[in-house]
Each structure stands twice: as structure tokens, then as C-alpha cells.
Amino acid sequence: MSLAIAVLAAIAYAGGSILQAMAATRPGTVLALAVSPLYLAGLAADAGAWVLSLWALQGLAVYVVQAVLAGSLALTVLLAPLVLHAVIRPRDYLAIVVMVSALAVVGMSSREQPAPPAGGGAVTLLSVAGFAVAALAGLAVLMPGRTDRRGLLLAGLAGLAYSATALAGRMVQQRTPLIATLAEPLLWVVISAGVAGTAAYAVALKRGAVAPTTALLWGSR
């Protein structure tokens, strides 16, 4: 069940990336992109995928879920020529086949694995690292400049921020009453890193093509 949920999340992520890339190719500022209907639709798809991934993380190890979610890159690259008229080389398709095959092996070798309770040291370490990555991604978004290197930097930081979100999402503990969960630092890592990663990825899409940007995003996750 958790594996199927992760696959649905990957499909949603691919759709979200394509919609956001379509919005990013249109002229305008980053602020105009943020309120674009296409971008908002892509963001909604990402939000749905994120919720599904958190659900999958309750039953599968982080590396398994992340491996399945990375399969969204293959879908993104396959959809890019149809929707964005991007040029995909034969070696790119070969890379997709290799990646999907490797992901299939990881997925089939997995089993249901409930999330274990996190120790205090692990919570502290992940909280510090998660907030640091979120801060770096936020600062990179605010930095001036329109170079390609900045786009690659933003894509890499977005991937790291999403990784922090995935790890924190698996480790966060729900408390009773529910409002007590708001005191969980990992919950705020999920929120801050998720927001920072989304912003960094949006600006990265303005700087470069969807395929390499998304590849770097998933490569750093």
C-alpha cells in the first residue's frame, strides 16, 4: 500500500514540475510567476504529492520513498517534449531506462517498515540541519543575479531542503491533544524547509530548462 502511494506521489510531482515549468517559461518576474494560475496548479500538485509522500513514509524507509519519488524525473523528461517542446537526446532516454530499472529493484526489495520513534539527539541534529538548509535556500532565493550557476545552486538547495522535509516528516511524532504537535521542532522543519525548497525550485525554473533543473533537484535529495 505504501509503495503504491509513493508511486502516486511521483506522478503528481511530475505533473507539478511540468505545470511550474510551463509557467516559468512565460515572461515576467518571480512575483508574477508566484501568482500564475499554471504555477499555482503545479504547486497544488506538489502539495498533494508531498502529503502522499509523508503518508508513504509512515510505512516505508526514507531511501525507498525517495527512490520512488525520483522516478518523477523520468516522467518529467518524457512529458517535456510533448508539453514544452524540449529536445531530448537518445542518451537521455537511455539514462531514464537505467534509472527506472534501478528504482524498480529498490522498490521491489522493500517492505513495510513503520517509522521508529526518534531519539532526542537525532531530533536536535535534524532540527539544526533542517533549519540551516531552509535558511540557506531562502537566502539564495533573495540573492540578486540571473546567472545559470545561480539556477543550479537553487536547484541543489531545493533538493536538500526537500530531503530535510522527508526525513523530518518521517520522524515527527503526533501528540495528544493534536495541538501539542505544534511544539514539535521537526514539524517546523517540515514547514520551513518545504516552503524554502518550493521557492528555490520556482526561481531555479526561471533560470534554466526543466529537465536539468529537476535532475539536479532529485540528485541532491
Key descriptive features of the protein:
10 helices; about 220 residues; globular; mainly alpha
Descriptive account of the structure:
There is one protein chain. By secondary structure, the chain is mainly α. The chain has ten helices and no strands. The longest helix has 24 residues. The mean pLDDT is about 80.
Could you write a compact summary of the structure shown?
It is built from ten helices and no strands. With 221 residues, it is mainly alpha-helical.
User: What percent of residues adopt helix (DSSP H or I)?
Assistant: over 70%
Structural class: mainly alpha
- Strand count, sense and closure of the main sheet? none
The backbone outline, from C-alpha atoms, is: globular
Distance between the termini: 23 Å
Oligomer: single chain
* Rg, alpha carbons: 17 Å
Overall average pLDDT: 79
Secondary-structure element pattern, one letter each: HHHHHHHHHH
Work out the helix count.
Answer: 10
* Uncertain stretches: none
Topology:
Layout: H1 2-24, H2 30-34, H3 37-57, H4 62-70, H5 72-83, H6 90-108, H7 120-142, H8 148-171, H9 185-207, H10 210-219
